[in-house]
């Protein structure tokens, strides 16, 4: 059912979200130590048109992050290629070598990146999270909420930036033509990465993004993972304002005005996981008033969004942009 704001109000929903005074310094300090270190081991993916490497890159604090690098077989004799860094939905991982090869089959260098500590939900991952945290709800959203420095998503976003720079530095990749992409959590990560390192991102594909407008999401979301936050605040009644102030450091809608790359968003108006209003918050704030951006609206869909229809739209849009 349509439980959020009607579409005419969503098209105007651009909240003035408070941001931490030290937001830019916080992220400059977080990202400064990152390296472009990566190792590559070729693997047999069972496919003919795509070659795959098992990648281990250095993420936050030098922690190892796993990814698959897929290249069109023809790329081994040509280049440079445009690239796509793909971030995963909540509790998904890079999966098996043959699972995520759409962008490589379309001619892109395609880096499929694990999310640390995740990958035991709808597909598998191979990256742990060595850092600990204080009391948290089961899941990932409330880990490290005591302090911005310990926030789980601080580490995730740093890993994501490191992965982007690894792909941009690959000898077969054109560093000026690398896009970031993902659905749900991956859409929120993509939006945030575009804001954190705008000069490194050529385009953004943010599909039904998570991690946006946390206070609004906690008020209206009908399903996990935002309900982790609701349960946490129900238990920690004295930490409501502190919690939202901390989450502002990783709120994709708060970060979004810093982005500059062209962007294609999508939203589903029956999405009970990522409320449509939170997606529009990130979209309207993205890149400021002069940004080149579009949003596709799927009126009768839940969190699956546009599915294969939207993939076709993304293929055509990114080919035009890059």
TrEMBL record:
Residues 3-320 form the Acetyl xylan esterase domain. Pfam families: AXE1. It comes from the Bacteria. Residues 120-139 are annotated as: Disordered. PANTHER family: CEPHALOSPORIN-C DEACETYLASE. This is Acetylxylan esterase. It comes from Nocardioides mangrovi.
């Amino acid at each position: 059912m349509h439980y959020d704001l009607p579409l005419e109000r969503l098209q105007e929903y651009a909240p003035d979200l408070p941001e931490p005074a030290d937001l830019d310094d916080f992220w400059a300090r977080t990202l400064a130590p990152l390296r472009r270190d990566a190792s590559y081991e070729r693997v047999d993916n069972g496919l003919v048109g795509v070659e795959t490497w098992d990648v281990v890159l250095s993420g936050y604090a030098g922690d190892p992050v796993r990814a698959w690098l897929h290249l069109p077989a023809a790329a081994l004799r040509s280049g440079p290629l445009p690239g796509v860094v793909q971030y995963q939905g909540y509790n998904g991982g890079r999966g098996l070598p043959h699972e995520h090869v759409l962008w490589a089959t379309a001619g892109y260098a395609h880096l499929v990146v694990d999310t640390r500590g995740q990958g035991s939900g709808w597909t598998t991952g191979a990256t742990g999270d060595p850092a600990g945290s204080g009391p948290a709800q089961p899941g990932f959203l409330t880990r490290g909420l005591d302090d911005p420095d310990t926030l789980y998503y601080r580490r995730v976003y740093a890993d994501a930036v490191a992965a982007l720079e690894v792909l941009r530095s690959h000898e077969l990749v054109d560093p000026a033509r690398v896009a970031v992409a993902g659905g749900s959590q991956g859409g929120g990560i993509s939006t945030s990465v575009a804001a954190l390192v705008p000069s490194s991102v050529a385009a953004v594909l943010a599909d039904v993004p998570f991690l946006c407008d946390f206070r609004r999401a906690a008020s209206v979301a009908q399903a996990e993972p935002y309900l982790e936050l609701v349960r946490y605040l129900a238990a920690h009644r004295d930490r409501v304002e502190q919690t939202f102030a901390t989450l502002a450091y990783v709120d994709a809608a708060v970060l979004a005005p810093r982005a500059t790359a062209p962007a294609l968003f999508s939203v589903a108006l029956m999405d009970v996981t990522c409320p449509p209003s939170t997606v529009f918050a990130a979209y309207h704030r993205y890149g400021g008033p002069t940004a080149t951006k579009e949003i596709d609206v799927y009126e009768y869909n839940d969190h699956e969004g546009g599915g294969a229809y939207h993939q076709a739209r993304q293929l055509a849009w990114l080919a035009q942009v890059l």
